[in-house]
Amino acid sequence: MSRMLLLDGGTIAFALDDELLILRGTGLAALAAGPWPCEDAGIRGNPVIPA
Q: Are 13 and 21 contacting, i.e. CB atoms less than 8 angstroms apart?
């Protein structure tokens, strides 16, 4: 399995064996802008869904 890439619109792309898989409509948001979007375990970089 390859690295997973988070593309525009929440699309994910990765390779598994000899196939390229592209998953759309994942519901994922873009990473936060900045040099390290996962800083502090991703608390500020992860999208928040209001309850």
A: yes
Nearest C-alpha neighbor of 3 from the set 19, 18, 15: 15
Q: Which of 31, 6, 11, 34 is nearest to 23 (CA)?
A: 11
Can you read off the two tokens belonging to residue 37?
């979007």
Q: How does pLDDT run along the chain (51 residues), one tens digit per residue?
A: 899 888 888 889 999 999 999 999 888 877 767 666 666 655 555 555 565
Q: What is the pTM of this model?
A: 0.56
Which amino acid does the sequence have at 20? L
